[in-house]
Amino acid sequence: MAYQFFHIETYSDAPKRVRGTADHYNSAEQVEGEAAREARYSQHVAEPQPPLSMNFDGLVPLQQLIARRRQLVSSITETLTSATGKIYTRKLRNDAATLYTEIHSHPMTSAEYLADRKANHPEVLRWARLAVKDFQRRMPEGVEAAAVMHLDEGHVHMHILAINAGDPRLDANKLHAGKVAATAYRENNVSEALVSLPKPDLHPLPLKPKKLRPSKNRETQKKRDASHKAALAQWSIDRMRIEARNKVLLRDWEAANNAHLQAGRKARGKTHVQRAFNDALSKLQDDYYEAVGKPCGLLRDGPRRERLSTKEYAKRKRTARKIADELDKMEAASREITLTTAEIAKQQEKLKAWQRDLNAGEDNLSTLAARLQAIGQELAAKSAALEKAEAAQHEKSMRQLQQLSAKEAKLADVQRDLAAKIEAITIREADLASIEKN
């Protein structure tokens, strides 16, 4: 096999028979156990081996995801309204799909991989990374997932298990591309369901004979009991006969109705809902081929689908390998361009940083000049105010000096006048002394 293999499915806790089988049933627990290689769910594998955990970014360990799903399922309750209008709550139905899975298979056989694990590991690891990356790109917010790889069956293959933890009912069908498309079509269009043939009118069943009131007379009561017993026996026989006739009527109707519906489906062909479902899955395979198959050198379809000859199929595989090699070269060149672009961007960021520093310096100089100008204006204003104050003070001092000089002159006049008076008094005293002496 040199073509891609990619399958998606959803599961509930209720076992569901696998289409095309008589006694093969799948459930969420069974799928989880098979992925984890639990013994009771791995009997189809000759020598089960522990799975390899894919520890990529965004994934959780498988056992953690299993425990998480079961814990969430057990904690969910639904509020419903009955036909009578009564509101009640119940646990999530066990047939509600709560587990989403994907199976990715690689063309390399497990034996080939294990024969030279060191050489084959990079190719398988790259394929697994691309598949997980594509899965994560398609999933909405709130999805939790785990991935494991098996090397104990025919081909190397990987299981991705996911839960829609962001949904209140863990609705896994909202992650299934085909079911999402079918639901969207149903919601926006008239139903295309075929109308069944009218059911036949069934023969009414006889009423069960009632028991008469007890009699005080033993003989009478004995006869009544015997009569009631005989009536019950006849009623049972009549009922069985009518039920058998009704069963024949229903069987004949069911056969006629199945033929009617089958003819209607054949005449109608696929419904638009089925086309929406198939188209969505076909597009999913196309997108998967672009994201995973082509880069890994895988074909979109196998040889049977196009009825290719062995030579044509070999040629197609060589072409696919050549495309993958060219994509690898382009990817390598893209990485170099990315590195160069990153270096240029780094240098540009440095220039921008320098420019920011320069602009910041210029802004600082402008701010400093403005501050100095403001300080100069403030100093000039203070200087002018100081000069004005000094002039006023000088004028005030001169007035005070003049007043002091006038006071000093007046004081000198007073002193001279006082000295003259003292001198006059002294002369008088001398005269008086002379008079007294004489």
TrEMBL record:
<feature type="compositionally biased region" description="Basic and acidic residues">
    <location>
        <begin position="216"/>
        <end position="228"/>
    </location>
</feature>
<feature type="coiled-coil region">
    <location>
        <begin position="316"/>
        <end position="404"/>
    </location>
</feature>
<protein>
    <recommendedName>
        <fullName>Mob protein</fullName>
    </recommendedName>
</protein>
<feature type="region of interest" description="Disordered">
    <location>
        <begin position="199"/>
        <end position="230"/>
    </location>
</feature>
<keyword id="KW-0175">Coiled coil</keyword>
